[in-house]
Amino acid sequence: MFSIKNLAILLAIFNVTHSLTLEQTNGCDSTTCILPDCLCMSTTPPMGLNPEEIPQMVFMTFDDAVSNWMYPTYEKIFGNRTNPNGCDIGMTFFVTHLGGTNYQLVNEFFNRGHEIASHSVSHKDDYPYWMNNSIAFWEREAGRQREIITTYSNIPIDQIQGFRTPYLQTGGDATFNALQNLGINFDSSLSTKNFMDPPIWPFTMDYGVTHECMVPPCSVETHPGLWDIPVINFQSGENGTVCNTPDFLCFPSYANLTASEVFDFFMFNYERYNKTRAPFGIYQHIYWLANSQDVLQGFLQFIDFLLSLDHVYFVPVSKGIEWIRNPLTLAQMANNDVFGCDPSSNNREPVPCPEPQVCYYPESVPGGEQNMGSCVPCPSEYPWLDV
After folding, report:
1. Of 120-124, 200-204, 235-239, 249-253, the least confident
2. Average pLDDT, the chain
3. What is the rounded distance in angstroms from the CA atom of residue 248 to the CA atom of residue 33?
4. Burial of 300 (0-12, 13-18, 19+ CB in 10 A)
5. 22 or 82, which is more confident?
6. CA-CA-CA-CA torsion for 229, 68, 101, 380, nearest 10 degrees?
7. Count of beta carbons in the 10 Å neighbourhood of residue 34
8. Is residue 12 over pLDDT 50?
């Protein structure tokens, strides 16, 4: 969870940007880096497709613990909302362990078609901690959380394919080497404000990270096959604040936003995506929406506006990557519904939660009382990095 200290540090980090143009950074050879396994960074759709003929994908993601008190707000967001093909909208949850995660809800969200990804075990409120450049460190935080999700929500580990670092603070190449060792398919931790307009598409790191490095330590190595889902910054209106998450950073805590102001904010940022139809990433935290009915109302109005358009699809990140690997026009999708509802067509058979448990621990390794929901009998100790 963000604090005022975190906000101040992040705002300071924004000033440590290595500004390079697309031409300067993108040394990727598009004649050898070809789909489905390699893609250069670009502002144009894959395979040279016309933006007007392809779907506008929306990557809506939420970070941190998945707790019971959040459920009503999440239900207001994705309950009874469908894409143009009639299938429920989908999103990606980057789940952290600490914070009271209920793995029964994680199981339910997965079975409803959403994607579950790793967001670390500890989510420690300490920036130097996350600057760690040890591969073993990142394998523990990212990989152990993957194991915890699998163990207590019954989601197959090969279905947990994404990772996002806490506070978007990586350890440089150590983070990405660890993800490759773990067999994780994509990372969504690297932000960009140089490539907001027009927005860039996701790409593979075969030629390294080819946009600017906003948060050191920076990656200098190549990571073939690992997808970078860039966190393209938002802006709070013309000449307004630039921020990587449309919640804490774009608006001060005392801003009493109206629903209309929130709707206009999202529309202002969405409009530039019409140029490239790069996936429109909405990367945020549920607290902002749950704590203000006006903010939630404005956000829901924006979602409903997008869903009134017959080319907009809210899909989990992994499903979006599959489209990018084998892109189709909207006309072709009429006969090949890559965003279809059938779980078996996406290797997404429902997983059971046979023995729902509420686990309570008066003492824990991280300290203090902890609790979690589980789909299996409670372990004797609160699960942690080495437990």
Report:
1. 249-253
2. 92
3. 37
4. middle
5. 82
6. -160
7. 13
8. no
Q: Say whether 88 sits in a helix, a strand or coil.
A: strand
**Number of helical H runs and strand E runs in the chain:** 13, 15
pTM over 0.90: yes
Model confidence at 11: pLDDT above 60: no
Which pairs count as long-range contacts for 12-16, CB under 8 Å and 24+ apart, including other chains?
13/214, 13/215, 14/193, 14/214, 14/242, 16/214, 16/215, 16/216
Question: In the chain, where does DSSP find H-type helix?
Answer: 4-13, 22-25, 71-78, 103-111, 127-130, 135-138, 144-153, 173-182, 259-270, 286-290, 293-307, 317-325, 330-333
Confidence of residue 6 (pLDDT cuts 50, 70, 90): low
User: What does DSSP assign to residue 296?
Assistant: H
Taking only the tens place, the pLDDT of each residue in 229-242 is 999 999 998 988 99
Structure confidence by residue, pLDDT tens digits, 286-345: 999 999 999 999 999 999 999 999 999 999 999 999 999 999 999 999 999 899 987 655
Residue 228 belongs to what H/E stretch?
strand 223-228
Element (H, E) at 219: none
Sign of CA dihedral 170, 234, 321, 352: positive
Beta-carbon count within 10 A of 25 CB: 20
CA distance 228 to 176: 10
Distance CA 331, CA 227 (A): 27
Residue 254 burial (CB count, 10 A): 5
Nearest-angstrom CA–CA distance, 103 and 154: 9
- Give the amino acid at 56: Q
Handedness of CA 160, 161, 165, 171 (dihedral sign): positive
Exposed/middle/buried for residue 158 (C-beta within 10 Å: 0-12, 13-18, 19+): exposed
Structure confidence by residue, pLDDT tens digits, 323-339: 999 999 999 999 998 99
| Residue 352 backbone phi and psi in degrees, to 5 | -80, 160
The Cα 387–Cα 381 span in angstroms is: 7
